[in-house]
Design brief:
Structural class: mainly alpha
Distance between the termini: 68 Å
Order of helices and strands: HHHHHHHHHHHHHHHHH
Helix content: over 70%
Strand content: under 5%
Oligomer: single chain
Low-confidence stretches: none
Number of helices: 17
Radius of gyration: 21 Å
Length: 400
């Protein structure tokens, strides 16, 4: 029976890993559809190569930083563990690799290729797993301190803070240090439109992410006996709440409508195992509203050129999700309880501060040393031809 349980748990978490791996195709197509046509190839290649670098770094360094264990032992010893530990690494890797995929959308269309890969290695090797270990593996006694202080530990079931807020708040310094795309904000005060290249590809990316997200959330149980139908339904309700709110507040804009479900899913991750479905609907609706309002403010009023809006979507909606778990997870609002708003506020704040600090250090050092940005000529030509020497539709680009 024990062997059967290990086998089913391994299969369960493997399916989760595959579903979250598929989400990276969603990141790729969401970015591809949002950027201009001359940067589509770059969007596709960045996500795949970032994932590959993340895999090697997390295998060699990051997983050990977070969980104090590694895989530099003989294959016989690895096999003796029935493969579950390896597949658990695969599953958690797909979470870690989401961080550079998130950042990629913010710095699109003008960032150099190789410096971002260096940033990916540092972030996935140390910055992300350092906080992952605190939140999910009891490192440094932070959770014990929070429990003594507030009565409960910081709760983040599927990563509203650990993954999304960390990714979004890491991206903000990168976007600020990189600067806006050329001619985006003119000296006369006008804002130049940089419209998406493909609404269908943008929508495809959003749908792939939505489907994969049920592996992201539900499979965070990590073993079959802990699977919760509540997590699945709460994810669904938050998704539709975010969609409907973005539809209304965003005045039927297709970009907002397709990012709305993602905002809701980002926010529900932390408390998806605790909330009542109606609470999850509200959490998703608030997240969809936050995204539309804050994306508009950052782009048009504050003139922060975050191309895909990853700071509002992941940073702010993830932050809201960490706090919302402490509100809607409480029994007073129909949740299961066992969560403290105080612990959620402190844990969320720690994650935000750590990500901001890490982002400014990593991207600040890169800017001072190797540089972050393409030249003006390369940006004008587009990252596809400047970096990869081919466009998205080469047959149409040939000069006859």
């Amino acid at each position: 029976m024990e062997a059967l349980k290990q086998g089913t748990d391994t299969l369960f978490i493997l399916l989760g890993a595959i579903m979250v791996l598929a989400m990276h195709a969603g990141f790729a197509f969401l970015e591809l559809g949002t950027v201009r046509r001359k940067n589509q190839v770059n969007a596709l290649i960045k996500i795949l190569v970032d994932f590959s670098v993340s895999t090697v770094i997390y295998f060699l360094v990051g997983y050990g930083v977070a969980y104090g264990t590694g895989f530099l032992i003989g294959a016989e010893q690895l096999v003796a563990k029935n493969g579950y530990d390896l597949v658990k690494f695969f599953f958690l890797l797909t979470f870690a690799a989401a961080i550079p995929a998130i950042i990629s959308g913010g710095i699109a269309e003008r960032a150099k290729f190789w410096p971002q890969l260096i940033a990916t290695a540092v972030i996935v090797g140390f910055i992300y797993p350092f906080f992952e270990g605190i939140a999910w593996n009891q490192h440094f006694g932070v959770q014990a301190w929070l429990k003594a202080l507030t009565g409960e530990e910081f709760h983040d079931f599927a990563g509203s803070i650990v993954v999304h807020a960390i990714g979004g708040w890491l991206a903000l310094p990168a976007v600020i240090l990189l600067g806006a795309r050329s001619n985006r904000y003119r000296k006369d005060g006008a804002i130049s439109a940089h419209p998406p290249s493909s609404i269908p590809f943008l929508a495809l990316g959003a749908w792939i992410l939505v489907v994969g997200w049920f592996g992201f959330n539900v499979m965070s149980a990590q073993t079959l006996d802990k699977i919760s139908g509540l997590v699945a339904v709460n994810s669904l309700m938050a998704m539709v709440g975010g969609t409907l709110a973005a539809l209304i507040v965003g005045k039927n804009d297709p970009g907002f409508v397709h990012n709305g479900p993602l905002a809701g899913l980002v926010a529900v991750c932390a408390g998806s195992d605790l909330m009542h479905p109606l609470g999850a609907l509200v959490v998703g609706g608030v997240a969809g509203t936050i995204f539309v309002i804050m994306f508009t403010l950052t782009q048009n009023k504050w003139r922060v050129d975050d191309v895909l809006g990853v700071w509002p979507l992941h940073g702010l909606c993830g932050t809201w999700g960490g706090v919302a778990a402490g509100i809607f997870g409480s029994q007073a609002l129909g949740g299961l309880g066992g969560v403290s708003l105080g612990a959620q506020l402190i844990g969320t704040g720690l994650g935000v501060v750590w990500a901001l600090l890490g982002g400014f250090v990593v991207y600040g050092v890169l800017k001072m040393t190797v540089g972050l940005r393409l030249s003006q000529e390369e940006e004008f030509e587009g990252a596809d031809l400047s970096i990869h020497k081919i466009g998205a539709t080469p047959d149409r680009d040939v000069n006859w």
